[in-house]
Amino acid sequence: MTQEVRVRFAPSPTGFLHIGGLRTALFNWFFARHCGGTFILRIEDTDRERSTEDSIQEILEGFRWLGLDWDELYRQTERQEIYVRYAERLLDEQKVYRCYCTPEELQEMRKRAEAEKRPPGYDGRCRDRKEPLALPFALRIKAPREGSTVIKDLLRGPVTFENSQLDDLIILRSDKTPTYNFAVVVDDVEMRVTHVIRGDDHLANTPRQDLIYRALGWEPPEFAHVSMILGTDKKRLSKRHGATSVQEYRHLGFLPEALINYLIRLGWSHGDQEIFSPAELKKLFGLDSVGTSPAIFDPEKLVWVNAQHMNRLSPQTLIPLLKPFVAEEGLKIPEEDENHLTRVIACLLERSRTLKELAHSIRYFYRSDFGYEEKGAKKFLTAETRPRLQKLRQKFLALTEFSPEAVHAAFQEIVQEEGIKLISVAQPARLAATGGTVSPPITEVLSLLGREETVNRLDRAISHIESGD
Hints:
By secondary structure, the protein is mainly α. It has helices at residues 19-35, 53-66, 80-92, 103-115, 180-190, 206-215, 246-251, 256-264, 278-284, 299-312, 315-328, 338-348, 355-366, 374-380, 386-398, 404-418, 423-434, 442-449, 451-467, and strands at 6-9, 38-43, 72-75, 96-99, 138-141, 148-153, 157-162, 170-172, 195-199, 222-226, 229-230, 295-296.
């Protein structure tokens, strides 16, 4: 019988959910879903000074926005008695020992190691103490002093660590709180974790954790240490490379499926395919296609991926996603205008890369109090173009319908009558209608604005020219 896959994502709630952490979560989540296994969300909040409830809620909210569910949820602060029970069991089995060393003694050991150019580590002075003392004590595990520990990594193959580099790690502090490495292992044992998929910055912890697994009589899970995410300058991803919080990308107008798609492709591939839906990723994701080279985070590539996902959605589907960003623009679109909004979105979608960009582009369809782009206005809203705008206004008023085709015909008539290029009348009209020199085809824009609003905007531009503003 095949063992059920059980994986965990274990964030520390000391700040926002970083996209590097999210990628690790995605590798775990899609691996579990692909295998029909269990995904455990474990909040490692034992650092009580830095952990906050706000950070926990942000992690959970980020997961909900991304559509990532969890099968089991734990908080380490609710599991204190479990850690103490396991530590006392190891003490009874003489696999750990009481350490009475004071902070001053430990500092002296570190200084001596530095002076002797040795790696800092505990010197084991309490290891063979026979009689317990009536003093505060921590519990340290007895690490092997000879030989080596080999970690079988699913991505990197065997990784060897010399045991001489390991010291007797504290597993329980004198205040009965567990250390990180001990709590992690106890939780993995209790939760029957089969695979640990995490960043390679944790690789150095693995031999210490391997020791604790085996002391507890538990076969270690299978490990897969994935590469770090680097910025385009090949340095560890940080704020200087742009947004690093999941919620920041949400507020910038990225789709959750696009962020998932981009992050999981940092280190995983499936042929030359770039765009994946979450359903496709569940079907295809596997550790055998995860590489070990550092992944480079490219913000422009993420924007491109987001644009691809936006263009896969219908305008009707985008409306509810777009509404918060439309509100940020100060626009109020009545419910009865949603049919018109659908047509506006269809017009603008191909040129928009994020929901925020799309909402910003929409504004000139619903507000006419915009200013004119200065450089464009100087070039196209001039005494020379004023008669053309006036003639265009009259032709629009004479049309029996105000379709894109009819609007285009009116432009062509002026081109023929004036012996000019289309740009000489189209760009002034675009400035008048949108305030800028770039937009979707002007015939579509004007048709969506409607005859009355288009004429009003032409009048406003003509007045602008006449006033010399």
